[in-house]
Amino acid sequence: MKISRVVKGSLIFLMAMFFVLPSLAFSKRPVKIGSFLALTGPASFLGDPELKTLKMYIDEVNAKGGIDGHKVELIYYDTGGKAKVAKDVVKRLIKKDRVDVIVGGSTSGTTLAVIDIVERANIPFISCAGSIRIIKPVKKWVFKTPHTDRMAAAKIFEDMKKRGITKIALITGDGGFDKSGRAQCLDLAPKYGIKIIADEKYSNSDTDMTTQLTKIRSTDAQAILNFGFGKAPAIVTKNVRQLGIKLPLYQSHGVASKKFLELAGKAAEGVRLPAAALLVAEQLSDSDPQKKVLLDYKTKYEAKYGPVSTFGGHAYDGLMIALNAIDRANSLDKGKIRQEIENTKNFIGTGGIFNMSPTDHLGLDLNAFKMLEVKNGDWTIVK
Known about the structure:
Rossmann fold, 5-stranded parallel beta sheet
């Protein structure tokens, strides 16, 4: 059967339009970045710098013309650090707001609570939380930017080994990050020849941990490791000093901000912890490829909001990895964006130099961590 030239021409036009429509849709609407953050509640010290960072850099990107000329829109909700709220708002981001990528999840608990939701929805998600369980085992649509709790434990145990410490007391809170960190410490310690001879716990809402620390004082531990975040680690630090305990005290990267120094005060002197280089950017060698990125971020953030924290840095890394992926994909097809996030190579961020792969949805190693010590009320790099 012969097809008339008019009909044939119409079919060709319709087929052409079929392939052009997706790109036209992309050109007519902004890139939508969704976020859910702990802006209130005990974890607000995480969410506050994260939101400020997202807003600041999205404004900057838009001022420069957006992504390939397309404006970027931020849609965000407060979770208060609560897992149930996180589930509700993530469903809203996906179904009602129809975001293209999600960058957020201030805490491990809220992040872990929504993984099944984003996986079922096939939407790229870059978390700002620490637990290794977020990316191990690998989930197709889930990525993260902060160093994992397992990496933190390994970095701490490396430092302890150098100092000849073989017996330690562990004390942890009851949050998702704390529990995951405790599990990693228990698993890794024997690999470094370290024995955990005390394993104490507290509630993150507690205002005094002297009972647990008095028990620790009666052991022959050579150091104390507190794995937690929020106000509780500062209380532990003060209680250690109040009890006259002279042992080396280690904290996790969950307290890597000026807020910890303010809360713990003079008691923080001598505390060691692993953290991103952002806190000591000025102390890095000029040849360090991260230094310029860190100083640029720090200068912009502090000019607008005050002292930086590594938590805002995690949001910067997540946002930039997402926007770079969208730019490379030249599409808002979620599968293509996900693939480009996974293809992230040599991205210099605040947390380190990221190299992701199908088997590694973080892309950082232990070299991305610095071991820091509090001296004269500020962070210094342990040599």
